[in-house]
């Protein structure tokens, strides 16, 4: 499964009118295992592997800081809305409990 990890995606409009509410959607591939499940073949516990934090900035200014736990489903999907006030870059950083880190960004032009 290691080859399927990461691959973060952000979907948001490339442009918006000033003051418009835009939706940002994201997805990251991660098994989100709790460490309490057993492998069906071997009977051994599957190690915990889950996203712990998601940090979102817009033009390098904090927008959201999210703490996740093992209660989040595999391949977590996140959606939120923001008001488009200026053009810029939205950046998302996902960090997991195994010191993995992934990031993605997307630009929006506001007119």
UniProtKB/TrEMBL annotation:
InterPro entries: Ig-like_fold, Ig_E-set, SoxZ, SoxZ_dom. It comes from the Bacteria. Residues 10-105 form the Sulphur oxidation protein SoxZ domain. This is Thiosulfate oxidation carrier complex protein SoxZ. It comes from Igneacidithiobacillus copahuensis. The lineage of its organism: Bacteria, Pseudomonadati, Pseudomonadota, Acidithiobacillia, Acidithiobacillales.
